[in-house]
Amino acid sequence: MEMNRGLHRFALVVAGATFFLIVAGALVTSNAAGLATPDWPLTDGHFLPKIESLGMRTGVNMVGNLFWEHGHRMIATTVGLLTIGLVFYLYRGELRKWLQPWLVRLGFNKRADVPYRGEQRSWVRRLGMIALIGVILQGLLGGLTVKLMLPLWVSTAHATLAQLFFCTTVSLAVFTSASWMREQPTIEERDGLSLRYVCIAASAAILVQLIIGGTLRHSATWDQHLPTELLLTHIGGAIVVTLLLGTASILFMRRYPGVAFLTRPAKIALSLLVLQLLLGVAAYITRLGSPNDPQPLNPMIGITVAHVACGALVFATTILLTLRTFKVLRAPQIGLRPVVQPERV
Question: Do the Cβ atoms of 176 and 3 come closer than 8 Å?
Fold first, then answer.
């Protein structure tokens, strides 16, 4: 199947914008700017910022916490529009088939047999539709966090869905890439621990860890101490993720050293995991003294946001590794022996 470069590049743009949105959301939480304005989706009845130097004398005054909160909304709106555009890109072949007779009748298209490439795999198109539903739900959850005055369960669900949506956009970028479309030789898994199952377990553990981390972040503002039970649970989750993802990465490099399709994301995942652990320790150290600060200070904000961003990258890389594992590795054929026919006398 031929690769559609334009579709792949658009999917990369959506994934990159989504990662930027996660960083913006972490900045809102770290700056305690979630309730900078009680309005939603507009801020004081406006959406565009006030920029007097450009002649925009009315709009949102982007100062203080309004800069973080409304900036986050503007980025979220952009991601939503990009996702809609991606879905149209995925379905443009189907739309062309449906609109072609009408365009010919109206004289806009003289040739009814003009080829128009679209995404041919229906399951990829359905994944794009799931991404669209996800970004809509994410926007609604963002509105609920404001209208309901930041309830913990809504804020946690909002943070978790952001990570899931990011991995959905990353998966779309993977499925439309040249490396995925290219035929890859399949390899039978070696005896021992199944890497396919280890990757699934690592992905599930990271998702649970992200949920715990989101709950921990939203359970206390900068001037409050973190709940001890949640903090210990988060540390325990980090140990589980380290064991699973570390084991998977090392096994990939030991069993398949010459298969870059698998070892490259394994090395990246392991490197990001080490960085994430260091950022977690640094975030905890800078967070210890924050209740005594008059406001959230830049060292705590920067390290905490970097910790959230790196966690998203670890999750996305692990999803990539899992997808590639299922594409290349096949389960060993166990217990299949040739049937010996009895000799005729």
Answer: yes
Element (H, E) at 325: helix 298-328
Q: What is the pLDDT of residues 288-343, one digit of tens each?
A: 989 999 999 999 999 999 999 999 999 999 999 999 999 999 877 655 444 444 44
The domain containing residue 216 runs over which residues? 184-332
254, 310 in Cβ contact below 8 A? no
Neighbouring CB atoms inside 10 A of 147's CB total 13
Does residue 28 belong to any structural domain of this protein? Answer: yes
Domain count, the chain: 2
Domain closes at, from 164, 182, 200: 182
Please provide the DSSP assignment of 311-322 as one string.
HHHHHHHHHHHH
Amino acid code (one letter) for 200: I
User: Does any domain span residue 343?
Assistant: no
Residue 344 lies in a domain: no
What does the DSSP 8-state code read for residue 221?
Answer: -
Pair (197, 155) in one structural domain: no
Place of tokens 């939603």: 40
**Cα→Cα distances 66→23, 49, 73, 147, Å:** 16, 10, 10, 16
